[in-house]
Design brief:
The complex is a heterodimer of chains A (about 160) and B (about 80). In chain A, about 5% of the residues lie in helices and about 55% in strands. With about 160 residues, chain A is mainly beta. Chain A has a domain of about 100 residues: Acid Proteases (Cathepsin D, subunit A, domain 1, Beta Barrel), CATH 2.40.70.10. In chain A, the strands form 3 sheets. In chain A, strands 4, 5, 6, 7, 8, 9 and 10 form a 7-stranded mixed sheet that branches. In chain A, strands 1-12-11 form a 3-stranded antiparallel sheet, with no helix packed on it. In chain A, strands 2-3 form a two-stranded antiparallel ribbon. In chain A, β11 and β12 form a beta hairpin. The relative contact order of chain A is 0.24. Chain B contains 3 helices and 3 strands. Chain B has about 80 residues and is of the alpha+beta class. Chain B starts with 6 loop residues before the first helix and ends in a 10-residue tail after the last strand. Helix content of chain B is about 30%, strand content about 15%. Classes of the chains: A mainly beta (about 160), B alpha+beta (about 80). At the A-B interface, β1, β2, β3, β5 and α1 of A face α1, α3 and β3 of B. β5 of chain A pairs parallel with β3 of chain B.
């Protein structure tokens, strides 16, 4: 089943190269991460350039995870190199209206996303699981929900 | 696996899709750099604060156990990742 999601319109104030400001449309998904009874819901960018699904380190704290007890690997991106990223198995819940599905996710958490304050949905855990069609002209992207795994819930 | 949606199907899905959430209007008055908690319909700001733990506490106090939480970036930055 294909589900349509609207790009979120995020205004960026005027700067020298863009004196009129910009209305950036970004393919954000609302999702919830769960670790036992603890959960945190936030925005995550469907980012084909990201290897893994990573989130701000504050999300780990909200989930009761201790980075000192997690496995770490360096990450790099624009202007950053070898930023420690801490990985743990959690559950990812995605909702499209009344369709709610949960999947296991080996998620990363990093201080490097604290300023952005949103997660990144990357190749492992997201794009290897869902077909995604970007239709920027219509301001939409479409996510194909596979049949729910045995551990998932569908309402 | 289903086929990729056709152009006609995409038009139909576009017509059925939710309105583009305008975070500019939603976040008016929220200081840059703040963590923000909003409702799941993305229509209302519940709370904002400098720390995520504080914004969660405020949202819980206001009756929302599971708000959507994110941060409004500090500066006028575009996102390149």
């Amino acid at each position: 089943m294909w589900c349509s999601v609207a790009y979120r319109k995020v205004p960026v104030p005027a700067t020298d190269p863009f004196p009129n400001g910009q209305d950036c449309k970004r393919p954000y998904l609302v999702l919830t991460l769960l670790n036992g009874p603890k959960l945190i819901s936030g925005l995550a960018l469907a980012d084909t350039g990201a290897d893994h699904c990573v989130f701000p380190l504050s999300f780990a704290a909200a989930l009761g995870l201790d980075p000192l007890k997690m496995k770490a690997q360096g990450s790099m991106g624009m202007g950053s190199y070898n930023v420690p990223t801490y990985y743990e198995n959690v559950t990812m819940r995605i909702s499209f209206g009344s369709h709610v599905q949960e999947y296991p996710l080996y998620a990363g958490f990093t201080q490097g996303l604290e300023q952005q304050g949103v997660g990144l949905l990357g190749q492992f855990g997201f794009f290897d699981r869902f077909n995604v069609l970007f239709d920027r002209a219509r301001g939409l992207f479409h996510v194909e929900l596979p049949d729910p795994p045995k551990s998932a819930t569908t309402t | 696996m289903q086929k990729t949606p056709s152009t006609g199907m995409r038009s139909m899905m576009a017509a059925m899709a939710p309105v583009v959430p305008d975070y500019g209007k939603l976040l008016e008055g929220v200081p840059r750099g703040a963590w923000v908690a909003i409702t799941h319909d993305e229509q209302r700001v519940l709370a904002y604060a400098a720390e995520m733990s504080e914004v969660l506490r405020l949202a819980h106090e206001r009756g929302e156990a599971d708000p959507i939480v994110f941060r409004l970036p500090e500066a006028s930055l575009t996102l390149l990742m």
